[in-house]
TrEMBL record:
Domain MULE transposase: 266-337
A Pfam family it matches: MULE
Name by which UniProt lists this protein: MULE transposase domain-containing protein
Species this chain originates from: Penicillium arizonense
Position of the signal peptide: none
Length: 337
């Protein structure tokens, strides 16, 4: 009778043992790997060093204008002053020459989630612009002409973008005042100059700068109440509470008066939300023409949708009607507010 047990290990085929890879001969003079190789150095053209400048800013602008033609930019690193506090030397480096900062993480601290990047790569390029105390002129001296990177597009140099922005800032400011969006402004810039290095973030930053200059340390509401009378085109009124907080603001532009005089019988009022950082409801007051189109009569910010808040705005609207010699509207459309 044949046995049903499996074959014994001795009856099975011997297990194949993989061969180990051959050992490479040691090469003591082998070149280092690509990761260990130092970056290759490059030399870019420099502006004439025999030029003299009235101010260091003039010299920096000149070298960056020259560097824009050759794909690099420079920035100030540090400066020295005389005993009398007069700045005499400004040390200049490549805009990629600042040392890469590495923050030491405490032991056991979690890894930072925010991953930042930088273009700095310790470029060795170094110059200085020095003041001649006798003539009062500034001139360049070179300490290291080598760069550890190749020429790069101007759009990768924030300094070059800043210099170009200063040349077109007036036009951009006019377009922003007209309410054009960033994409249209950028399209117009690229149409006028296909080689422009500006991007959308530069226009956003410029808009923020103009906004900060307009506020001049004031809150947006303070700036609004101060600038509206200066404009001279607005009819407005506001109320404050015991703590001098604005609780209601009514505004009407003078361009609405002509339409309101001929179309004052029917108006519509409705509140919109989330239109401002203060969370105040915005009450839109709209009129209707004989052709069925609408126009803005005015708008108001109110603290809430209670009767007291509406009474304040309606009283302002009544005053506007009386000042214009108009009869009160016969119909006011709302959505059960």
């Amino acid at each position: 009778m044949a046995s049903s047990q499996p074959n014994s290990p001795s009856d099975s085929e011997p297990e194949a043992i993989p061969e180990s890879p051959p050992t490479l001969p040691s090469l003591p003079d082998a070149p280092p790997s690509l990761h260990d190789a130092p970056p290759s150095l490059h030399t870019f053209p420099l502006p004439p060093l025999d030029q003299y400048y009235d101010t260091p800013e003039q010299g920096m602008a000149a070298i960056n204008a020259f560097g824009a033609l050759h794909g690099y930019a420079v920035t100030s690193l540090r400066s020295k002053k005389t005993k009398r506090g007069v700045k005499k030397v400004i040390y200049i480096c490549c805009d990629r020459g600042r040392p890469v900062s590495t923050r030491a993480r405490p032991e056991g601290a979690p890894e930072r989630k925010r991953q930042t990047t930088t273009l700095s790569n310790n470029c060795p390029f170094a110059m200085a612009i020095r003041l001649n105390l006798e003539t009062g002129k500034w001139s360049f001296t070179v300490e290291d002409t080598s760069h550890n990177h190749t020429p790069s597009p101007l759009s990768t140099h924030p300094i070059q973008r800043s210099l170009e922005l200063s040349t077109v800032s007036d036009g951009i400011q006019k377009q922003l005042e007209q309410g054009l969006p960033t994409r249209q402004i950028l399209h117009a810039l690229r149409k006028d100059n296909p080689e422009t290095c500006l991007n959308a973030q530069d226009i956003y930053n410029f808009r923020h700068k103009l906004h900060a200059e307009f506020l001049a340390g004031r809150t947006p509401l303070q700036a609004l109440l101060i600038e509206l009378p200066k404009d001279g085109e607005w009819i407005f009124k506001y109320e404050v509470d015991d703590e001098n907080h604005v609780t209601a603001l009514f505004c009407m532009h003078k361009t609405s008066i002509a339409l309101l005089k001929t179309n004052s019988w029917v108006i519509s009022m409705d509140c919109t939300y989330k239109t401002n950082r203060y969370g105040l409801p915005m009450l839109d007051i709209v009129g209707f023409t004989a052709t069925g189109s609408t126009f803005y009569v005015g708008f108001a910010f109110i603290k809430d949708e209670k009767d007291d808040s509406y009474e304040v705005i309606l009283s302002c609207l009544v005053e506007a009607y009386e000042a214009l010699g108009l009869q009160a509207p016969r119909t006011i459309l709302t959505d059960k507010e």
